[in-house]
């Protein structure tokens, strides 16, 4: 057993697994890829996440924060130590019904969260397709959205604060900061101060290129969100963490925005002769401000009939 494995087993209060069966279970997600991990950690609390990342940092071992494993592009597989919060860090911690926000742990599953919120008449809005398996932490990592993104936007639009662990194991909170607070963060030094300084520098030095090349579309989720740092307003590193697919920070808690449950719903089914006609009509349909627009083509209907 290597020194980093011994350190994890000795210092983690949660579960640490290196057996072949666990590795096989975590070698795949919803993508086509299969890569055996180096181990799996189920942290018991934020300190466990911090300890895991610090040990990995000290020993040069890669890590992969993993949600529900529902992504199609292989974000949650890799030859690394997988950190899975679904077993022990899956709670709804606090709900503020008046201000419409909640504090949650990253391992909570979307459907389970919304079931807990339903009595208060609120919900966490991004409605990903695998909502009965996808975790909020994974949604934050992928900047996920769903069929109703035309009115509710993406996950980035609903994250208020993030409790995170930095690359050296430091725990901190990302939230909007104004100029005076920004200066305090930079002057404090350390990894966190360097992050604040470097993100602003990169955004400022590449402002023209960012504004030129980042597409102005509703559902762009590729790459780091540097376009969030070229405009005026509070400096908010939550915007950088969301969509970073676990490559920048580990998430231990999130304060998220909630929206009222819809009081009424309706459905229109419109038939078209071909795909072009449907696409042309979508432009006019969007002017009516629908909650969602979905295309169901012949291939899907045929498969449904055969199932």
From TrEMBL:
Organism (species): marine metagenome
Residues in FAD-binding PCMH-type domain copies: 33-261
High-level lineage: unclassified sequences, metagenomes, ecological metagenomes
SUPFAM superfamilies xrefs: FAD-binding/transporter-associated domain-like
A GO term, aspect molecular function: D-lactate dehydrogenase (NAD+) activity
Entries under InterPro entries matching the protein: FAD-bd_PCMH, FAD-bd_PCMH-like_sf, FAD-bd_PCMH_sub2, Oxid_FAD_bind_N
Pfam families the record matches: FAD_binding_4 (PF01565)
Gene Ontology biological process terms in this record: lactate catabolic process
Protein name, as recorded: FAD-binding PCMH-type domain-containing protein
